[in-house]
Design a protein that fits this description.
The complex is a heterodimer of chains A (about 350) and B (about 230). Chain A is α/β, with parallel strands linked by helices and about 350 residues long. Chain A folds into two domains: about 5-200 and about 225-235, Rossmann fold; about 240-350, Rossmann fold (3-Layer(aba) Sandwich), CATH 3.40.50. Chain A has helices spanning about 10-20, 35-40, 55-70, 80-85, 85-95, 120-125, 145-160, 170-175, 215-235, 255-270, 290-295, 310-320, 340-350; strands spanning about 5, 25, 50, 75, 100-105, 135-140, 165-170, 175-180, 240-245, 250-255, 275-280, 285, 300-305, 325-330. The radius of gyration of chain A is 21 Å and the shape is globular. Helix content of chain B is about 30%, strand content about 20%. Chain B has an eight-stranded parallel β-sheet with strand order 3-2-4-1-5-6-7-8, with helices on both faces. Chain B starts with 9 loop residues before the first strand and ends in a 13-residue tail after the last strand. Classes of the chains: A alpha/beta (about 350), B alpha/beta (about 230).
Amino acid sequence: MAKVLMKGNEALAEAAMRCGCRFFFGYPITPQTELAAYMAKMMQKNGGTFLQAESEVAAINMVYGAAGAGARVMTSSSSPGISLKQEGISYIAGADLPCLIVNIVRGGPGLGGIQPAQSDYFQATKGGGHGDYHLLVFAPSSVQELADMTSRAFDKADEYRMPAMIMGDGMLGQMMEPVEFKDFVDPASLPEKPWATTGTGMKRKKNIINSLYLTPEELEYLCVEREKRYDKIRATEALCEEIDTEDADIIIAAYGTIARVAMSAVQEARAKGIKAGLIRPITLWPFPTEAFAKRAETAKCFLSVEMSMGQMVEDVRLSVNGKKPVYFYGRTGGMVPEQDAIVAEIEKCLKNS
Amino acid sequence: MNIFDDPKRITVVTGHFGSGKTEFALNYALFLAESGKEVMMIDFDIVNPYYRTKDAEKYLNSRGIEVIAPEFANSNIETPTLPPEILRAFADKSKYIVFDVGGDEDGATPLGVYYEYFKREDYNMFFVLNERRMLTRDVEGAYEIYSEILRVSRLRFTGIVNNTHLMGFTDRDVVAAGERLAEEFSEKVGLPVVCTCVSRAALEKIGGIDNSKSKIFPISLFVGPGFENKAN
């Protein structure tokens, strides 16, 4: 199909329906609302169900139910709404169910503000809800990547039987860019889910969806087994983009839209004769540790640039493992790091290293 | 209808969200100011949280254009309120007014509040159309949104602004497809296509357009995140 012009929020909704998502449960919140609004307009036309729940808590539990029944299902919200969903997310992870959760991040903590932010990194990658669990976390940086990542997130969630999250900031949700979509996938053609509660037809044993286990031995066993799956994901599913890193003295770490500002800063630095490079994590969990570890051998230092007070920088430090200094530059509260400021920071870091 | 040689005092810009209403409205306001009119722009958007007329306020002010925007526009909260200063648009007849209205029927709903004022004066109300927006790729889709805006605003449309583009991917074919849809739509609703907007960057890339049936309005772009290297 030909390229069209869409807001990130709309593109995600369209991409989700095209890859077979027929159930959306959510509650509107800025700057994510266009996603729910697009679903409200189009889901029924595509033969699916859109439901505006009475709250975020209700919405995530509807997702829990639909996922248990084997449906390709999603919800979306923005930071405060995602906080409300955490209990349900933990239950979904505990019941080993696939679904997609979208967080179009705004400023926090608390009610915060409606301007873009990346300050939910900890929440997305280090838990958020209770218990030993992870989400697959994708962080696209353009509207096209957002659309492409949507089907990948659903597929990987199914493959590993776990919830996936797409995390974008308000800018990505609100901005318009040309985007090309893949053809519609028939939900009936998706891989079967033999564990789903689809009715026994008197032909098989009951499937049970649950996250409560009566003996600690059983719960421990399941957590250990789940961790083995997580290890496989850590080893095989990390994604990142590397630009000009091979000869770089300083490597910028930035994800999502800020990676694009950082990219411009890298270009400007290169024009000034500074050997700068960029590693853009595309998956935030699993984190692309290897890419950073490899460059810790060649680069002089690292600089994590974020719209937060410093969250991803911790994973960069763990990956670099003390071999080189890792610095941080960030803006928060809805402020966006500017190219000039990043270039100035690059110069400062190199002077200190 | 020639909206450039013979503009009405009041212009209302509406359409599907993301069609480029704000870019057209800004450029049209700047055109009016450059042709010697005193211009006031009204950021009438209670739907869109960012990328709006208010973003260009400083530049507009530097061009002598006054901007009236919702009190909390571009702040950290969102309140669907409009300031009382808007009434000056109707009271001060020395000024040319451009209303940049929010997208779809939700954005156009507050126009209805000013029905009694609009009734007293002639105005232009344009439907901005972009053939590359998913929901307005054909006459049927565009008509659905057009009809909703008509219903909630209680005003009447006077023309269609063809703003078909694909940002950096805009080429001759994109512009031509937009013109075809705008003409078809013009027949359907019985209103003229008042202009076809093409960004200056796209015009330069294409090398000019000389076979257009409607007037080409070259526009500069003002709103959006702007990630490109600013040192270039």
